Amino acid sequence: xxxxxxxxxxxxxxxxxxxxxxxxxxxxxxxxxxxxxxxxxxxxxxxxxxxxxxxxxxxxxxxxxxxxxxxxxxxxxxxxxxxxxxxxxxxxxxxxxxxxxxxxxxxxxxxxxxxxxxxxxxxxxxxxxxxxxxxxxxxxxxxxxxxxxxxxxxxxxxxxxxxxxxxxxxxxx
Length: 173
Prior knowledge:
Blueprint: H1 2-13, E1 31-36, E2 44-47, E3 53-56, E4 60-63, H2 69-80, E5 90-96, E6 99-104, E7 110-113, H3 120-126, E8 134-142, E9 152-154, E10 165-170
Parallel strand pairs: 6-10
Antiparallel strand pairs: 1-2, 1-5, 3-4, 6-7, 8-9, 8-10
């Protein structure tokens, strides 16, 4: 039984890359940590620029906006393998997500740091809750990824993503 536990432990120690379960796409303003095992000079923490790029040793400016953390890890492995390292082990994680925005009839409108699993209800709570004049049903969300930038009506259970703009309208009764 001990012989079975050792291979499972060794498998779990491998860094997750393209097979990772995260489908979160990186974007401008995200702060990430890149770790190359055994190579402290290639490990770093950095924030994506407004162009969605990072400056990485040996690879120069790399466009990472739209990539998942697994895709970025794979890109760095490809760039380092052979020329600089024999078998690089790279992991990438998000340290700070970019902000989302809440405006309208909430007590503290503004920008807030995104948290995984965020819904409209949680976003309103982070903004101090509804004002007395707020409509609890007339709420719109403008998705950052929507090319038209048109707000859509949402309910309180709708997910909110980084860069989204949530607007709580005024109630008329």
